[in-house]
What does this fold into?
Amino acid sequence: MNAGALNQLELRRRTLLGQLQTADVNLRTGLHQHGMDALVRAHLERALAHIREASIAVDEQTKVRTVQELADQLTRIEQMQADLRAGQKPADESSTSIHV
It folds into this structure.
């Protein structure tokens, strides 16, 4: 490949990284909006994870997880979080608090 072609590839890579960064910023901004439905929030969080994974793949030019691997790992994390929330019970105030 000649120098011109390499420069063109690098320009495209940098352009794509800029687009991914813009998407990242916009998704994070959307996550901070008040009154958002939980389902919408979950989709935005999942999209953000995919954008970040794509950014790593483009920026570092390395092998990253497949879309399915990432989705499976995110699902496992979400399930663990749900299990933790379900397992949390309000503390028994009589045994853990000091009352005067």
About this structure: Confidence is low (pLDDT under 50) at residues 93-100. The radius of gyration is 21 Å. Residues 3-31 form the longest helix (29 residues). The CA atoms of residues 27 and 44 lie 6 Å apart.
